[in-house]
Amino acid sequence: MLDGPGEPRTPYKAVFHTLRSMTGSTLKERADILARSYLDQGVTFDYAGEERPFPLDAVPRVISAHEWQVIESGVAQRVAALEAFLDDIYSREGEIPRAVHEGVVPWRLIASSNHYHRAVTGIRPANGVRVHVAGVDLVRDEAGTFRVLEDNVRVPSGVSYVIANRRAMANVFPEAFATMRIRPVHDYPRMLLAALRAAAPDGASDPTVVVLTPGVFNSAYFEHALLARMMGVELVEGRDLVCVGGQVRMRTTTGDRPVDVIYRRVDDDFIDPVHFRGDSVLGVAGLTSAMRAGRVTVANAVGNGVADDKLIYSYLPELTRFYLDEDPILPNVDTFRCAEAGALEHVLGHLDEMVVKPVDGSGGKGLVVGPRADGPTLDRLRTTLEDDPRGWIAQPVVQLSTVPTFIDGGLAPRHVDLRPFAVNDGERVRVLPGGLTRVALPEGELVVNSSQGGGSKDTWVLSDRRASVPATAPHPDNREVVVMSAPTASLEDSMRAQQQQQQQLREEGEAPC
């Protein structure tokens, strides 16, 4: 916020003067109103097995129009490179991927990824899009440069908090929105619905879109329900869908109806018991065959997780140059691939200076911050790296930028990151002007994930002019879905167990945060 004592940076001038005009009690009162509003709305997340109101800090993060142009261009470029990579490894059935043939990335790293699925090789989406929604995690380093920390193109979550944060802040700080040129975020559901409808199979003139949720026991169920409601589409569970004759149909009170596009929030392992986990009751049996037949589109595409692998992440600069013939706009954080002998030796010799991460981890699970780890922890980590170097990367410690945060009645600096959300409709990649700013609430903490006790901030992207964006309109064909037959108690127990298991896998780093 500050260039020096009492000297705010230009984007923060209005916020700085507003905060200075408030007494501590006034700011605390508004912070309490924010907390109560989230509790009343049921805006929650799962922390240590307990549902809690999502912490929203009263001080926003502000990004200038110029800074956002760099982020927007960089994220769109990143999505384009990821799309090209996924198309290269999945669409060329029986052929060596071009990036492998040209020596850009080794095939063994792709094939050994836990999230590379041969079952979907050869499936080409109707409009060529596999990454319909992306969440690209960014950090700002000591030099003020935005860097990519990781990619999330499996089942990226968190956009509901972007929308909810903005609504809450607009109610509690209306004077800011009356005087500042803050770009809106309410258009996201319309952007998403347009991208999903554009992905419908050929011949679907008025495509039916549904949101597939694991169920009410999933920690992100609030987001699933919010997006379905705001898009005006049906929220369904696996038991509401059935594959008949290679087509996915939805059970309703007026009979079965065809489904063209499924925006799934169910992980790959549970999506189709025929090709993946045979005991899954969260997905739809035969869904993969319907995808291969071109009768339904699943967004995001099954198998995208290979692009989230942090070893593949380390190759994205080279992949961007290879596929797009462009230099990356947003650089990666410097990364050592422990699978490479020379890099492993360096990391083992500097463990107390590195951040070491599992390649398929998320939410801060399994991460070790070397400078803060004790001797026994580093000894165990050294053994783990020697036994499984493919499973780990290492990065130098990045001192994430800080933003003033309301802590114990006063303002204090806390580390933040940023997750912008991008939507790809096949014609262009649109980046929501804002994104989810996550803040590490404990002093000095660098892990910002909500699963580690972090909170969030509303992200204000400033505009050079007042934006005029049409209000989101629900899809006119808004149907209610009713399960036709009541599940047995044993099925309910199984579904609850699998939803909790999917959440546990997510917390252990096998699914995106």
Q: Report the radius of gyration as a whole number of Å.
A: 23 Å
Q: What is the 3D form?
A: globular
- Biggest sheet: strands, sense, closure? 4 strands, antiparallel
Q: Report strand %.
A: 15-25%
Structural class of the helix and strand makeup? alpha+beta
Count of helices? 16
Query: Stretches where pLDDT falls below 50 for ≥5 residues?
Result: 466-491, 507-513
Strand order of the largest sheet: 7-6-21-22
What's the total number of strands?
Answer: 25
> pLDDT average, as an integer?
87
- The proportion of residues forming helix, as a percent range, comes to 25-40%
Distance between the ends: 28 Å
What does this structure look like?
This protein is of the alpha+beta class and 513 residues long. It has 16 helices and 25 strands. The strands form eight sheets. The chain has a four-stranded antiparallel beta sheet. A hairpin with a 4-residue loop joins strand 21 (421-424) and strand 22. Helix 2 packs across helix 6 and helix 3 packs across helix 13. It is globular and about 65 Å long. The two termini are 28 Å apart. It comes from Phycicoccus sonneratiae. Residues 60-440 form the Circularly permuted ATP-grasp type domain. This is Circularly permuted type 2 ATP-grasp protein. It holds the Pfam family CP_ATPgrasp_2.
